[in-house]
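Sequence and structure are no longer studied apart. As an example, we show below a sequence and the tokens encoding its fold:
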Amino acid sequence: MLKQSRYIKMLIPSLRRFIVLFISCLLGLSTLFANPAPAQAFDNPSLLPEKQTPIIDLANFLPTLQEESLTEEIKEFEEETGWKLRILTQYDQTPGRAVKEYWNLNDQSVLLVADARGGNLLAFNVGDEVYNLLPRTFWVELQTRFGNMFYVEKNGENNAIAQSLETVKGCLAEGGCNVVPGLPQEQWILTLITSVVGGVVFGLAARPRKQDQIVAWQWALLLSPLWGILFIAFGIGPVVTRTAEWLPLLRNILGFMLGALVAYLTPIFNNESTHSEGKT
């Protein structure tokens, strides 16, 4: 009992350091996407069309028919809801801040800027009233989901713009979203991996450490902050907040159980193989 208590005292500082390091890494990554990127900070009104239009496609990302369709959708949405959606694509040249006066952007405006020169295609300038319904974390996730190079390469710049705009429209029409709806396969795979890893941590912690012990519940509870974060916060939370489908949730739960079972039974298999070799 004394040896076990000493081991617990030695383990707690290491566990605390791991949790602090893990949270610090998350905070460090989040600062990279703290705010949507602003438009270029200079004026070049000569690039603006004389006729008022909600879309200025300087980079020619949008086919003509799709641009006309998006234009009609934006106008109808503004008439019905009052939210002002605008699209600016740019490459070598940009009108910069001149678009603010051209479109009369206000607190109910959302400006989508598509620029392929950076690491992410999309950037958003958002009015203060919009932030009340769609927080900054929503725009970070929206930017990284539809503007990353893999999505753009697979679906094209035009579809990345159209899909992100459709997502914004849907959330504004519903009265707001805290996260981007939908669960892409890549994000689900990440939640599945964290669920399995959480199960492995639980299984390792629950290994019996006494001869007559079946499950070491005290160790499982001691490490619950670690496997709980992996399984609940990163494995279950992103799924239930983004989709109502039960299949991804069921798969993550099964992944947690499988990881726990494998980690729990592995020492038993090792002991049996050792005994068999000894008898031989």
